[in-house]
């Protein structure tokens, strides 16, 4: 049945500004798609529709997280005093090994999915581990919760601890199993091909990943140009590539199917052109840039070049699953980045919001906006505890983004369905 | 009566490391001072003492905020897309003018004091406005709440909107009134002399401020070297000064009595030497540096030079009153600052914690540590919802700092007294 929600509606059709509908209406059809949005009920087809009045609340698109490591959930907010390499070796890799145990995986993954729900993230691109069974379990937890996710069993067979390497054959076999179960048209939860990054994968592994992506028309995710040593290492490992991105491209892992690459801190010149040409999505992870990377990705420049950019939490390189916090970090990091070279303006609130909603959402289909035809992924924000003076609707949203947390999120919708708290 | 609290005790005697007492005890005497701290109850004088077992909770020193603008509370988390000047002119100054109305002031200041309490900040250095009555009201609210505060009626008589300027005579008169009421030995709430900053004050205003500080032996607070234009402007306004700090110094406002200066982003050379010589405290406001300043204060360098540095929220240049968040920003900002010039290591968790507790606390007396003789300002943290795996006590504290919020603060103590929620 069609539903019409009445509330203060805010979203970003374009990145340069918010659409603000005071006491507006959004109609959602039986398939969970937006049928119309207006300040006038009469402008919408309200025949047979249930009208739900949400009062003085804000209604906004739900959050999308383009880059998050589910098995690093336990390590969220610890070991942040370490540099990248000791952090990986002493915390990240040992933790990921534990996911050979599905009991451990279930305990942690339940909390992880619950926390995504809590912070209003309805769709995510998730790195799991090499372990097929734990990955399957994570995907089922997303299904149970009703949340959208592209989940990657991770391919790694080079220069990693023994317990985190898998042969190319086993990787392919594991993926085939997951694909058989989860690769359904229109499914909210689907597999995504996930080579960890070039340094962890032999050419054979990368080739097999590319072949899987092509064979099943699956999306691809990985890491790109996060720090200088890594960029240099890739030059040595893949000497024929003209840049790091080109190394993925040669194996069919760079836009041949929808592709998202995390970080792109040192992306420039030829790599930037290749990303643009291939329509690769950049997952900008500003909290992680501050915590463990060595610099800030030049997002304003990416915008000028017309690149697609969304936001990622990168837990646990980023310490916070809350994408609203990541928006704030995106703005702050850009202020610091661009004040050094005064040639560009920092990112604005609407740009950060757009990256988290409509831009990131485009990786999951028509997601992240309230324009007709978009899947209704939405959050109802009761900010009455933050709204203690005569704030405008935009100021209320800005305050929620800067100061709010999960307490103000009253309802969460994914593809039109209201989602209760996951068990 | 003496009380002994049993809990997991963490604090920073030195900035380089945490003291960690698993199931430790801290004894607090009838005057609210720490009488002893140990993992052995027998090591403490427990005669006639009530022992309070706090179970698996963390017991840490309370937070101190060295720089916060109470009348900018309404503007917290809005207008962050503006540059410093339009932000001041369109948001900050118009808001501060409203505090001529004590009714408005009471409504806002009550929320402000409540939020400081909520986030566990037991002592703060506060800028109020030029308005004597509103400032008195704020001081009384702090008294009612039982929290410590140095509160400054702000001196400004140059280059500001009409409604925010006051003559030197009225400024002195207003201060004398507040001093008569609040300047008691050992009082938790006291006045602090507060010229807004050099560009807002004529030489006469600065001189009068210095004379008040000397006459009543009152501490001083102001802003120093936050951005380049400001530093240049001060050179024009005070041409005889050798640096911005020296301009304050000439009026007796730079360490002649205890002095705290916010920001110091561009402090170097002679100014740095003068700060050191005068024992001036630096209030580092990293969230504000990211939001509205144009760079990051070089805190590692200040440490190497032996400067005193504490943390400030700088609401509403900083958007967050929560000093735990400010700690995280201090670490992140230093990572970004020092990765550019690889000559220094970023700030560590213990250094950030020390800045917020023992170092900032020293501006209020013996505050911010659990060493014997320190006033018992403390927070009891129930992190059971964050502690879902086998974390060490230090990891638990780090997770609380990075991920926790007011929900985990179970009890708050200031000078030995547990403080209930302010009305």
Structure write-up:
The structure is a homodimer of 423-residue chains. With 423 residues, chain A is α/β, with parallel strands linked by helices. The first copy, chain A, is built from 13 helices and 17 strands. Chain A folds into 2 domains: 3-62 and 368-418, Urease, subunit C, domain 1, CATH 2.30.40.10; 63-364, TIM Barrel (Alpha-Beta Barrel), CATH 3.20.20.140. Helix content of chain A is 36%, strand content 23%. In chain A, the strands form 4 sheets. A 7-stranded mixed beta sheet of chain A has the order 3-2-1-4-15-16-17. In chain A, helix 2 runs parallel beside helix 3, helix 3 (132-145) packs parallel to helix 4 and helix 11 crosses helix 12. Chain A is globular and about 60 Å long.
Biggest beta-sheet profile of chain A: 7 strands, mixed
- Number of H- or I-type helical stretches of chain A: 13
Question: Any guess at the CATH architecture of the largest domain in chain A?
Answer: Alpha-Beta Barrel
First-to-last CA distance of chain A: 27 Å
Q: What is CATH's topology name of the largest domain in chain A?
A: TIM Barrel
Order of helices and strands of chain A: EEEEEHHEHEEHEEHEHHEHEHHEHHEHEE
Give the number of domains of chain A.
2
Offer a concise description of the structure.
The structure is a homodimer of 423-residue chains. With 423 residues, chain A is an alpha/beta fold. The first copy, chain A, has 13 helices and 17 strands.
SSE topology sketch:
2 copies of one chain form a homodimer.
Chain A: E1 3-14, E2 17-28, E3 34-38, E4 50-61, E5 63-69, H1 84-97, H2 102-118, E6 121-127, H3 132-145, E7 148-152, E8 154-155, H4 168-182, E9 189-191, E10 194-195, H5 203-216, E11 220-224, H6 228-237, H7 244-249, E12 259-263, H8 269-278, E13 281-284, H9 286-291, H10 299-304, E14 308-311, H11 323-340, H12 349-361, E15 378-381, H13 393-403, E16 409-414, E17 417-418
Parallel strand pairs in A: 1-4, 5-6, 6-7, 7-9, 8-10, 11-12, 12-13, 13-14
Antiparallel strand pairs in A: 1-2, 2-3, 4-15, 15-16, 16-17
């Amino acid at each position: 049945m069609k539903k019409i929600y009445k509330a203060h509606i805010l979203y970003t059709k374009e990145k340069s500004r918010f659409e603000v509908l005071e006491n507006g209406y959004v109609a959602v059809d039986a398939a969970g798609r937006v049928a119309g949005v207006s300040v006038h009920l009469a402008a919408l087809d309200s025949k047979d529709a249930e009208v739900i009045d949400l009062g003085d609340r804000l209604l906004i698109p739900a959050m999308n997280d383009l880059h998050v490591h589910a098995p690093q959930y336990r390590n969220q907010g610890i070991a942040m005093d370490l540099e990248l390499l000791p952090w990986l070796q002493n915390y990240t890799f040992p933790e990921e090994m534990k996911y050979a145990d599905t009991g451990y995986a279930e305990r942690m993954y339940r909390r992880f999915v619950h926390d995504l729900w809590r912070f209003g993230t309805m769709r995510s691109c998730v790195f799991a581990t090499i372990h097929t069974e734990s990955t399957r379990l994570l995907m089922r937890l997303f299904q149970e919760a009703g949340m959208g996710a592209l989940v990657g069993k991770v391919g790694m067979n080079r220069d990693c601890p023994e317990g985190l390497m898998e042969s190319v054959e086993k990787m392919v076999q594991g993926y085939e199993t997951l694909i058989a179960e989860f690769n359904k048209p229109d499914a909210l939860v689907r597999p995504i091909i996930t080579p960890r990054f070039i340094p962890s994968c032999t050419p054979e592994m990368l080739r097999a990943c590319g072949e899987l992506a092509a064979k099943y028309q699956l999306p691809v995710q990985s890491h790109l140009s996060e720090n200088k040593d890594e960029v240099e290492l890739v030059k040595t490992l893949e000497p024929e590539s003209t840049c790091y991105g080109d190394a993925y491209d040669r194996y069919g892992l760079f836009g041949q199917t929808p592709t998202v690459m995390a970080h792109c801190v040192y992306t420039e010149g030829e790599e930037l052109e290749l990303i643009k040409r291939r329509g690769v999505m950049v997952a900008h992870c500003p909290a992680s840039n501050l915590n463990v990377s060595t610099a800030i990705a030049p997002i304003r420049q990416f915008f000028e070049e017309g690149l697609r950019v969304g936001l990622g939490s990168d837990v646990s390189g980023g310490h916070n699953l809350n994408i609203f916090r990541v928006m704030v970090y995106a703005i702050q990091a850009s202020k610091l980045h661009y004040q050094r070279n005064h040639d560009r303006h920092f990112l604005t609130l609407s740009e950060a919001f757009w990256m988290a909603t409509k831009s990131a959402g485009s990786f999951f289909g028509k997601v992240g906006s309230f324009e007709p035809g978009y899947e209704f992924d939405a959050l109802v924000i009761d900010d009455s505890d933050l709204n203690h003076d005569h704030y405008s609707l935009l100021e209320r949203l800005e305050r929620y983004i800067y100061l709010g947390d999960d307490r103000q999120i009253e309802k969460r919708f994914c593809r039109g369905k209201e989602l209760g708290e996951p068990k």
